[in-house]
Design goal:
The structure holds two protein chains of two kinds. Chain A is an all-alpha fold. Chain A is 76% helix and 0% strand. Chain B is globular. The chains are: A mainly alpha, B alpha/beta. The structure holds adenosine-5'-triphosphate and magnesium ion. The site of adenosine-5'-triphosphate (ATP) has 15 residues of chain B, from β2 and α1.
């Protein structure tokens, strides 16, 4: 009988992260973009070079314009998102623990979740006037639904045995909610925070395009009207940086609060 | 504290799962409950612990709980039921929080961890512990409330054989003098931990037999005890065998 080596079959399907690959990719993309622009292959009015976009950002920073836009946007984002998170977590916990809240709330939330909240902005303006309130409300609404749903599913993920354990020690319901249900639902709450943060960014931009003097959305829209692609792209870069920063912040918070996982 | 149940029965949505049966657990007694799988052992224990309202009959205590007692009955769970986001010390402190001053909680938790050999693991999270250590946390958490009655639902069943053996010896030492009800499907475990073993029939579980274990608890780990316990185990198996086979072929409802 001939001897044959055992062939290893368990290969692949285990993607790893190659260190530095992300940074290298970014550098390559920007270098190529810059090269294309310098070579005069595209009109600078259609696609300004990254160096130009950077220069515009620097100018805006010096003139204080950047700060004004950022302050307006961050204020709306933080306010709307905080309201939406708070209400969403409370609603999600209620749906998670109470039969009444579940029977009433779940169909309601499920029906309203798919409605693009930006469609409600005109209605909200009708109700709340044209100031900050409708913008905050749009962002809050967009945040509320995904957070409520993922908080509720976070509660559903908690093993029943943990709740029974707490009851076996006669813990009052308040303590069970605070010490078992809330921390147990935290992974779900974080999932909701992640989804809703990107939704909030979209709604922020859209709301600022509809009626605002300051804000990144307003900046992008005005730049478009003036055919200033460099300013427009500066706004887009700001949005991207903002999104990445929020994601990184949430990631850091999650690593701290969910270290037990 | 003595625990009594009269005419106890339970049905899940019309499926008779337990009883009717009467039960007395004397103060300081160690009772094991065995029976074929699905016969209602966990159901019985949950009712005794006030985690489930029986469909019929009632359960009550007689006598006083120990003076330092926080809750009259404490539970030890098969799956440990530890809060994964709390450290070992945090898990053990849970039933005391809001009921005792902080300093006393710290002292009691420290003592409970020391008794169960967990002092060096106070700051660890459950996921960092082996199964045996996790169940030690479950036991420390039950003992820290100084319960009148300790209820254990298959406390060793999720562990490997050697861990089970070690933990069994330790639990026997830790619970000396305590009133306990120990549910298990493992007959050998039952005759080693209990003064009295109650055998339940296939679902709905009724009391089929009761056997006293004539070896004092502290002598159970001696070699002389081995043949006595083995004989008892054999008697129990002879009684259980047909029911166990039936439970097997009937399967889940
Ligand atoms: N919540 C429930 N709803 C419906 N039926 C249940 C429920 N819990 C248990 N049962 C059924 O009741 C019977 C008794 O269950 P129980 O868990 O008390 O048995 P057990 O003796 O502890 O079983 P095991 O040996 O598997 O631990 C089983 O047939 C089980 O399928
Ligand atoms: Mg069971």
């Amino acid at each position: 009988m001939s001897a044959r080596e055992v062939r290893l079959r368990a290969r692949g399907f285990a993607p790893r992260r190659l260190p530095g690959a992300g940074a290298v990719t970014a550098v390559c993309v920007f270098a190529a973009w810059e090269a294309v622009c310098r070579a005069g292959l595209v009109s600078p009015f259609a696609l300004p070079a990254p160096s130009r976009v950077l220069a515009v950002l620097a100018e805006m920073a010096l003139s204080g314009e950047l700060l004004a836009h950022l302050r307006a946007s961050l204020g709306r984002l933080a306010g709307g998102w905080a309201i939406g998170m708070l209400c969403g977590v409370l609603a999600g916990l209620a749906i998670g623990v109470s039969s009444l809240a579940r029977s009433v709330g779940l169909p309601l939330v499920s029906a309203l979740f798919p409605v693009p909240k930006i469609a409600l902005l005109p209605l909200l303006i009708l109700w709340l006037g044209i100031g900050e309130a409708p913008k905050l409300a749009t962002i809050a609404l967009g945040t509320f639904f995904p957070v409520a749903l993922s908080t509720a599913s976070g509660v559903d993920q908690i093993p029943r045995s943990l709740i029974r354990m707490a009851q076996s020690f006669d813990l009052p319901n308040r303590a069970i909610v605070l010490k078992v249900i809330l921390p147990g639902a935290l992974p779900g709450i974080f999932a909701g925070a992640r989804i809703s943060s990107s939704i909030a960014l979209v709604l922020l931009t859209a709301a600022e395009m509809i009626g605002a003097e300051y804000g990144i959305g307003a900046l992008v829209l005005q730049a478009g009207h003036l055919m200033r692609a460099d300013r427009l792209l500066a706004g887009v870069v700001l949005l991207s940086v903002l999104g990445v920063a929020i994601g990184a912040g949430l990631g850091a918070l999650e690593r701290r609060l969910l270290a037990w996982r | 504290m003595r625990l009594r149940a009269r005419n106890l029965a339970h049905a899940y949505d019309g499926l008779a799962a337990l009883g009717p049966l009467d039960l007395v657990v004397e103060a300081g007694e160690r009772l094991a409950i065995v029976g074929p799988s699905g016969c209602g052992k966990s159901t019985l224990l949950a009712i005794l612990g006030g985690l489930l309202r029986p469909s019929g009959g009632r359960v009550w205590f007689e006598g006083e709980a120990p003076s330092g007692s926080i809750v009259p009955v404490a539970y030890v769970f098969q799956d440990f039921a530890l809060l994964p986001w709390r450290t070992v010390a945090g898990n053990v402190a849970l039933p005391l929080e809001g009921r005792l001053p902080r300093t006393e909680i710290r002292a009691r938790v420290g003592a409970a961890l020391a008794r169960t050999g967990l002092s060096d693991f106070a700051g660890r999270f459950p996921r960092e512990l082996s199964g045996g250590m996790r169940q030690r946390v479950g036991i420390a958490r039950a003992l820290v409330v100084e319960p009148g009655v300790l209820l254990l639902d298959e406390p060793l069943s999720a562990l490997d054989a050697q861990t089970r053996e070690l933990l069994l010896e330790d639990i026997l030492g830790l619970t000396e003098g305590a009133t306990l009800v120990w549910v298990t499907h493992n007959l050998e475990e039952a005759v080693r931990v209990a003064d009295r073993v109650i055998l339940l029939s296939a679902r709905p579980g009724r009391i089929r037999a009761e056997i006293a274990v004539p070896v004092p608890a502290r002598e159970r780990n001696r070699p002389e005890a081995v043949p006595v316990l083995a004989r008892l185990r054999g008697e129990l198996w002879a009684l259980l065998r047909e029911d166990a086979r039936r439970a097997q072929t009937e399967g889940p409802p």
